[in-house]
Design goal:
There is one protein chain. The chain has a domain of 72 residues: Jelly Rolls (Sandwich), CATH 2.60.120. The protein is built from 1 helix and 10 strands, in the order ββββββββββα.
C-alpha cells in the first residue's frame, strides 16, 4: 500500500511492489525513488550513469524502518502540523516537502538517505 500525504511525504508499507520497476516519485522530483520487483533470473544490463550537473533546490529524504516502530510528525512549509503516522518494520517514507519530527516507540533501526553534502546542523536545518 502507498499513502501519499499531500505534497509532504509518501509512505510505502511493507510488502508493496508490483512486478518490474515502479517509480514512486515523479520524474521531476529531486530524489528519484522506486521499487524494483523482479523474478529470479531477471537481469539489468551493466551500466554507468553519465556525469551531468544537476541543480537540487530541496533536500529530500528516504527512511527505511529496518526494525522497530517510530512515529513521524509532518508539517507544512509554514511549520503548521499536518498529521502523524506510525511506521513499523519494513515500511519506508519519502519526505518531499515541509518539516518533520520523529519519536521512537521502541528500539528502532532506520536506514536513512538524503542528498549531500551536509553543511552542519546550523546551515542545513531550521528547527520548528
Amino acid at each position: 500500500m502507498i499513502e501519499r500525504i499531500r505534497d509532504l511525504a509518501i509512505i510505502i508499507r511493507q510488502g508493496h511492489g508490483e512486478p518490474g520497476i515502479n517509480f514512486i516519485t515523479p520524474e521531476e522530483n529531486f530524489l528519484q525513488f522506486s521499487i524494483l520487483n523482479h523474478p529470479k533470473g531477471h537481469t539489468i544490463k551493466a551500466h554507468v550513469h553519465k556525469d551531468r550537473e544537476r541543480v537540487i533546490a530541496k533536500v529530500q529524504e528516504v527512511l527505511y524502518i529496518e526494525k522497530g516502530v517510530m512515529k513521524v510528525d509532518l508539517y507544512d512549509n509554514l511549520g503548521k502540523f499536518v498529521c502523524d503516522r506510525l511506521l513499523a518494520t519494513g515500511d519506508t517514507i519519502v519526505l518531499i516537502e515541509g518539516g518533520h519530527g520523529f519519536s521512537f516507540q521502541e528500539d528502532t533501526r532506520v536506514i536513512y538517505t538524503k542528498q549531500g553534502p551536509y553543511y552542519g546542523k546550523s546551515e542545513d536545518k531550521e528547527l520548528l
